[in-house]
Write a structure and sequence with these properties.
It contains ten helices and 13 strands. It is an alpha/beta fold and 329 residues long. The strands form four sheets. Strands 1-7-6-4-5 form a five-stranded mixed beta sheet, sandwiched between helices. A four-stranded mixed beta sheet has the order 8-13-12-11, with helices on both faces. Strand 12 and strand 13 form a beta hairpin. The longest helix has 22 residues.
Length: 329
């Protein structure tokens, strides 16, 4: 059976930095409060009438150049996002157009913060089945578009960004080895965006009620996120016979520093084994994991044991185990 994995990664974030100090002029908060409770120092914000597809396109163009891939070689583009430019066409459709991927087809996956893991598991199937040879997977979200900057409990959390990875066939002992993906729709009340869908179409009422922004019950989400992310990650370690000191990297969704630390403790691993960049970018939803891979790529080695873990609205959560497929040049 074929094996498939990540063979290249690239990230892109907007230039504008929204710092905690600037945020404190908008809502009743402080740098100290945000750092103690969340661990975010600043987040990037997309300006100038741009949208999610623009960030995704920049990440894809950088990936193609870095991996020396001709755009005509890409056969499929999968985008994980909850902030599409519009309801339709899909972000993948727009990225194919903007990045010149004329031979590719594509679709979007909506699983909130778990989106990149869901999309990675999906992309792998197209390679191992022999259906495609080169797939570009993008995690991108413009969370500033759905963040209420009058809500002090949620506005410090989110930022904008995009990451793209190349998915190809790899040696049999490398690539994605195992995964656990879960959903629990009963959690929708604790983390959702109420307005804008078929249940609550846009209206004066939905706008006046701030229903087109992220809503989150912080304490409820914190408890479930730690439990679910840790449970599936520990289970992957057990069934693949990985001891804590044998795990090269945990790549957790960057939602909250306390969640990341709690999951690492439950897994019995050290901070040095955990990829962290939440302080620089905040929660970019589907983009957090690929942005971590992009920043830490130079430290990763062929054969490294890597576990990705995420928890998102809905609820969605999952963990994926892979052996890193290449040494960074």
């Amino acid at each position: 059976m074929r094996a498939a994995g990540i063979t290249g990664v690239f990230g892109w974030v907007p230039e504008y930095r929204l710092t905690n100090d600037e945020l404190s002029t908008m809502v009743d908060t402080t740098d100290e409060w945000i750092m103690q409770r969340i661990g975010i120092k600043e987040r990037r914000i997309l300006k100038g009438g741009k949208a999610t597809s623009d960030m995704g396109t920049e990440a894809v163009k950088g990936l193609l150049e870095k991996t020396e891939t001709d755009p005509s070689e890409v056969e499929l583009v999968i985008v994980a996002t909850i902030t599409p430019d519009m309801h339709f066409p899909s972000v993948s459709n727009l990225i194919c157009h903007k990045a010149g991927l004329d031979n590719a087809w594509g679709f979007d996956i909506s699983a909130a913060c778990s989106g990149f893991i869901y999309a990675l598991e999906t992309a792998i199937q197209f390679i191992v089945s022999g259906r495609h040879k080169k797939i570009v997977l993008v995690g991108a979200d413009m969370m500033s578009a759905i963040t209420d900057y009058t809500d002090r409990t949620t506005c410090p959390l989110f930022g904008d960004g995009a990451g793209a990875v190349m998915i190809e066939e790899v040696d049999d002992d490398l690539g994605v080895r195992d995964s656990i993906l879960e959903v629990d729709g009963s959690g929708y009340n604790s983390l959702h965006m109420k307005g804008g869908g078929s249940l609550r179409p846009a209206s004066h009422e939905t706008v006046d009620n701030h229903e087109h922004f992220v809503f989150q019950e912080g304490q409820a989400v914190f408890k479930v996120a730690v439990s679910k992310m840790a449970d599936v990650s520990v289970e992957l370690m057990k069934r693949n016979n990985i001891e804590p000191d044998q795990l090269s990297w945990l790549v957790p969704h960057q939602a909250n520093m306390r969640i990341i630390e709690a999951v690492a403790r439950r897994m019995g691993i050290k901070k040095e084994q955990v990829m962290i960049n939440i302080h620089k970018y905040g929660n970019t939803t589907a983009a957090t994991i690929p942005l971590c891979l992009w920043e830490y790529e130079s430290k990763m080695k062929r054969g490294d044991n890597v576990i990705l873990a995420a928890f998102g609205g809905g609820f969605t959560w999952g963990s994926l185990y892979m052996k890193w497929a290449y040494d960074s040049e």
